[in-house]
Amino acid sequence: DEILRSLAGPPSPPGQDPHGWRVPVDCVRANELCAAEPSCSSRYRTLRQCLAGRDRNTMLANKECQVALEVLQESPLYDCRCKRGMKKELQCLQIYWSIHLGLTEGEEFYEASPYEPVTSRLTDIFRLASIFSGMDPATTSKSNHCLDAAKACNLNDNCKRLRSGYISTCSREISATEHCSRRKCHKALRQFFDRVPSEYTYRLLFCSCKDQACAERRRQTIVPSCSYEDKEKPNCLDLRNVCRTDHLCRSRLADFHANCQTSFQSPTSCPGGNYQACLGSYAGLIGFDMTPNYVDASPTSITISPWCSCRGSGNMEEECEKFLRDFTENPCLRNAIQAFGNGTDVNLSPKNPSPPVTLPPKMEKSPALPDDINDSNTMYDTSIITTCTSVQEHGPKLNKSKEQSLCYSETQLTTDTMPDQKTFVDQKAGGSRHRAGQILPLVPVLLLL
């Protein structure tokens, strides 16, 4: 019907191509096009007056408001979107919601994202990140990737300046009862993630870890004692409602749901198989009350959550739990983070949630870790873990490699690294080639276990 009306109607106004299709424009430009058209301009003013101080049902009961809404659905404003980080982003989002809050109830569980779709992939970011780190497993098996990410940031003037700025702001004590300014901390964090290239910010947020000290550094990336944690956890639905009163927070949350909502039609569990879109949407939430973070310093599992719970949800508990699971049990988000940590956007993790693991004791709050300290855990050699894992994943391709011998030269696998397994290697076998040959068939079984 829309196509027929456009073909039978007058010549296309600005913002449309000759065939009647609306050319996608950002909402600031769409507003300018609407202002240049008297009919659109007057209807837009009417709609804004209809929305001011009225609920949607009251607005729709007014005939003039209904007509204004119908006319604007045919204008460039209806299809407009915003670019993340654009110069007039907040103004663009305000225009977007002024139209779309009138078209919807405003209380949907998921809302459409006001941002343009992300079409790029992680490949380019991995390529740029590899310039700094080398990404060579043979040379970086002992390295702390989160510490390496901090050092790489310090080599870039813009990254170093903005990172130092938010750490200083988020760590500055205001009074005896207020240890920081949460509002200023969030603003500094938003500036960092909006203005620093993602090859630096992603490496700080999504670096892979082999030990608890590294994972704690990753958790401390956003200075959680100020930006994330609070005295009490609010109800998640209350937190969502507060977020939706702010156009910017509402937009970032809608974008997160659009790009990280689990899709079982995709082998990656992400919509369109796009890890880049999900990670970007996640980073876009940092610096708001809805800020997500790692819930603990576990290197073996990735659990993300905003600072909220479903306690006191009443008859809304099921909806609250569903909202919270979009963070805590989200295979798309988990796969995207693991893929970036592994250095590939095509490494697919199983769709089913990982089996529960025993989490380490919750660590006490600690200041951000300095960048000149090696976080490696001395309980065990992470190079052994990394190499043996690569042998398990890649099989015969590493049979003749020097690194593979590390898996077979270990004379003891303690319960510190594999608490549920007994030691299979004979303590006397270190110098005997014959005994090593007998033990060798047991190693794949051990690795699989």
UniProtKB/TrEMBL annotation:
Keywords: Cell membrane, Disulfide bond, Glycoprotein, GPI-anchor, Lipoprotein, Membrane, Receptor, Signal. Residues 1-21, 344-364 are annotated as: Disordered. It comes from the Eukaryota. SUPFAM superfamilies: GDNF receptor-like. Its main location: membrane. GO terms for cellular component: external side of plasma membrane; receptor complex. GO terms for molecular function: glial cell-derived neurotrophic factor receptor activity. Glycans are attached at N342, N399. It is found in: Cell membrane. Residues 27-104, 146-226, 236-332 form the GDNF/GAS1 domain. GO terms for biological process: nervous system development. Disulfide bonds join C34-C40, C146-C207, C153-C159, C170-C185, C180-C226, C209-C214, C236-C308, C243-C249, C260-C278, C270-C332, C310-C320. It is a lipid-anchor; GPI-anchor. Belongs to the GDNFR family. This is GDNF family receptor alpha-2. It comes from Pampusana beccarii (Western bronze ground-dove). The lineage of its organism: Eukaryota, Metazoa, Chordata, Craniata, Vertebrata. The gene is Gfra2.
